Every structure is written in C-alpha cells, then in structure tokens.
C-alpha cells in the first residue's frame, strides 16, 4: 500500500486524489495533523507555492508529503486569477465570490468571447525537507458567461473544457476526474510512485 500525506485541509482535493489514485493508495491530509502549520504561499508561481508547502510540511511530518497548487489562468486577464485563484475576491472569499469577481472583470473588457483559459495544477513531492519531484497537469478551455451546474468546486461551473459541451460544474465527478488538470498531474505522480 502506498501512503502519503497531502498537504491540504481541503476535503474536495483529498477526495479527488483518493478517487483518481485508486485503492492502491492511502491519502491522509492535514486534518490528521492538527499541529501542522499553515504555510504562507509566498511564491510567484504554482510550482513555487507547491514546493514551499511540500518541503515545509515534510520537515515536520515523516514519510512522503505531496502538495498541490493549482488555479485558473484567463488569457484576457493576463493570466489572472492565477496563483490568487482561491482568494481572488479577498482573503475570506467563498467559491461564489471568486466566480462573481471573475465574471465581473471579464464583463468590463471589450474583447470577443470565448475567453480562453486553462486550469493548471502543479504537484510537489518532498520527504524530510527535500524536494523529490514535481508533476504538472493542464487542461485548456474557455470561460462561459454564467455558472452552469452545481458539481465540483471553485471555478468549475464557469470552465468549459475544449471539445466538450459541459462545464466542470455540470460533469459527473468521474468524468471530471478523468480529464481534469489535477487528474493529469496525479496520474503522472501515480506512475512515479508505482515505479
């Protein structure tokens, strides 16, 4: 059985990891480590933030630690919200607040739709305070004019993957877990851990 600690307190992410990795893996998260510190994301890229979290937590918790940093990049907004995706509408913003701000910012622009965008995920793996590897997953798509669907989390209801007719928010979780940016990065991680 492969085991690691996922450096998150987000139960949605933990569930996604478990579902995508399958029964060969046991994934714990920071809810099992109440004394673990919150790591400030001071990096300027998803990769830097993932590495910061993985290395810092691995200094305090034995075994493999995997950290994720991911978010939405919208071309018309110069790549925003980017690394600020989770707090785009402010430090205590909820998913709906972030989506509302994104759509408001896009409506201010005088450019044609579709608004090209991508979800990017970077996973960093560390042990004993040392970075072991990173894995990247990206899915291209566009932002729809208003939220569609109640599934997923974050910007899922407004992200339409290329070649599909349903937003991540409308998709069955199994379908999303097959094609998402996080799924792509997790599959790369899985292959490396099974070697």
What does this structure look like?
- By secondary structure, the chain is α/β, with parallel strands linked by helices.
- It has a single domain (2-194), classed as Maf protein.
- It has 5 helices and 6 strands, in the order βαβαβαβββαα.
- The protein has helices spanning 11-21, 46-58, 95-107, 173-179, 181-194; strands spanning 2-6, 25-29, 65-74, 115-127, 130-143, 159-161.
- Strands 2-1-3-4-5-6 form a 6-stranded mixed sheet.
- β1, α1 (11-21) and β2 form a beta-alpha-beta unit.
- The radius of gyration is 17 Å and the shape is globular.
User: Regions with pLDDT < 50 over 5+ consecutive residues?
Assistant: none
Element-by-element helix/strand order: EHEHEHEEEHH
Helix content: 25-40%
Approximately what portion of the residues adopt beta-strand conformation? 25-35%
Radius of gyration: 17 Å
Arithmetic mean pLDDT? 94
**Biggest β-sheet, characterized?**
6 strands, mixed
Shape: globular
Structural class: alpha/beta
Helix count from the secondary structure assignment: 5
* Main sheet: strand order: 2-1-3-4-5-6
Strand runs, count? 6
CATH architectural category: Alpha-Beta Complex
Give the C-level CATH assignment: Alpha Beta
CATH topology: Maf protein
- The quaternary structure here is single chain
Query: Between the first and last Cα atoms, what is the distance in angstroms?
Result: 13 Å
The count of domains is: 1
């Amino acid at each position: 059985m492969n085991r690691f600690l996922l450096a998150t307190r987000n139960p949605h992410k933990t569930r996604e990891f478990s579902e995508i990795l399958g029964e060969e893996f046991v994934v714990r998260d920071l809810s099992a480590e109440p004394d673990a510190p919150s790591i400030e994301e001071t990096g300027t890229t998803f990769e830097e933030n993932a590495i910061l979290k993985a290395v810092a937590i691995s200094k305090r918790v034995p075994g493999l630690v995997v950290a994720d940093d991911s978010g939405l990049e919208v071309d018309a907004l110069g790549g925003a919200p980017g690394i600020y995706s989770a707090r785009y509408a402010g430090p205590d913003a909820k998913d709906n607040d972030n989506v509302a701000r994104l759509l408001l910012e896009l409506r201010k622009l005088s450019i044609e739709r579709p608004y090209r965008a991508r979800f990017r995920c970077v996973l960093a793996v560390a042990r004993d305070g040392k970075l072991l590897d990173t894995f990247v997953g990206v899915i291209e798509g566009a932002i729809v004019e208003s939220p569609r669907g109640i599934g997923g989390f974050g910007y899922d209801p407004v992200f339409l993957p290329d070649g599909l007719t349903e937003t991540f928010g409308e998709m069955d979780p199994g379908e999303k877990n097959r094609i998402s940016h996080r799924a792509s990065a997790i599959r790369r991680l899985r292959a490396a851990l099974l070697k």
